[in-house]
Structures are given as C-alpha cells and as structure tokens.
Amino acid sequence: MDENPVILDGGLATELEAAGFQIQGDPLWSAKILHTNPQAVKEAHCRLAWEGFIQHLGLTPEQANQLLMSGVQLAKEAVQDFKGDGVHPEAVQLAGRCKQLVAVGVNCCDPVLVEPLLESAGPHRSPDLSWVVYPNRGEEWVQGAGWKTSESKVCLADLSPKWRRQWAAWIGGCCRVSPADIAAVRQQLHGST
After folding, report:
1. Where exactly are the transmembrane stretches of this chain (predicted)?
2. Which residues contact 162 (CB under 8 A, 6 or more apart)?
C-alpha cells in the first residue's frame, strides 16, 4: 500500500455556500448554481482542485485542467462499461473488473459509516483497486430545515488513519467539510499542511 494517500478537496457545495450562495433547502443543491451561475462553480472548482493540483503536484494550470478532464473521461468510460455488463449484485466486484478504474468508494455518507463500509467491502477488493473515502461532516440533513448540526462533531482527521489501514488511498470530504477539515486530514496523514 502506498504510504502517501491522496488528499482530496472538500465539498463543492460548502465552498459555494462560503461564497454566499444559498444551497440548503434547494432540491438541486449545487447543481442549481451550475444552472444559475456557472462561473461561480468554475471558480469554486479552481479553488478546490486546480490550485491543489498546482500547489501539491507541481502541475501547470494547463496540466491541472488535463488531469481533471482525464478524470471525467475515465468516469464516462466506467459508466459505459457498467451499462454494457448489466447490473451485478456486487458493485465492488464489478468495479474490480473494470480496467479503467483505479478506485471506488463512499461519498456523502456519515463518516462513522466509512469504517464498517470499508470492512464489509474489503474481501471483494481487487489488488489493483483503491478505496475513495469522501464522507460528509456527519450532520443530519432535515428536509425543509437544512443541516442539523450536532454538539458532538466527528473529526475526519482522527478517523483517517483507520481508513488508511483499510486501504483508502483517496481521502476527502463532501457536504459541510471545509478546507480546514481537509488541512487537518492532510496534517494527520502527511504531517504537513
């Protein structure tokens, strides 16, 4: 297992909300902003992904853009492969057979669910396939009211070493995960900010 996991960005919706956009309560979430203000989505992606690629991978802006586009292309190819093979009961086993995929994982779930999910999927993991862990902040979403914050917040940085031991090679965060949360994960796993 690679000793240096890839630290992914935080949630797009979180960045858009920080920029002043109202997302909570809208059934389209950040997709609404894609429709009403695509430039804001582009700028948020620049902050979250391109700057990270440039700063941490040493890429030029053009190389960072090419890397993002290669990810989009791989996702499109994986969807086509999935459609061609039909539906299988074990998604992890299907992903393991897809030569274009390098990782599969969990997205926008409570962080306390990640460990048992990785544990249950572990026996089906292909040696050539890594896990992606991209949980939300662990707060409850209440329809019509928005996020219900909890007094006992889960610290992603504290959970991340266990995820690494379970073969998570790509670790980031979805809804309500901030750049500070991601920096703490990076500090915990890499020892630097």
Report:
1. none
2. 115
Predicted TM-score (pTM) of this structure: 0.59
Is residue 47 within 8 A of residue 64, CB to CB? The reply is no
Break the chain into its structural domains and give their ranges. Answer: 6-190
> Residue 72: helix, strand or coil by DSSP?
helix
Distances, alpha carbon 31 to alpha carbons 16, 35, 137, 173, 180, in Å: 11, 6, 20, 18, 24
In order along its 193 residues, the chain shows pLDDT tens digits of: 556 766 665 677 778 888 898 887 777 777 788 778 888 887 776 666 667 777 777 888 888 778 777 766 665 665 565 444 433 346 667 777 777 777 788 888 889 888 888 888 777 777 777 888 989 888 887 777 777 877 767 899 999 999 999 889 889 988 888 888 888 999 999 886 5
- Give dist(CA 152, CA 8) in Å, integer: 24
- Please give the structure tokens belonging to residue 125: 């993991």
Question: What are the C-alpha distances in Å from 134 to residues 37, 38, 83, 88, 115?
Answer: 25, 24, 24, 23, 12
The neighbour count for residue 173, using CB atoms within 10 Å, is 26
Q: Is 114 helix (H, G, I), strand (E, B) or coil?
A: helix
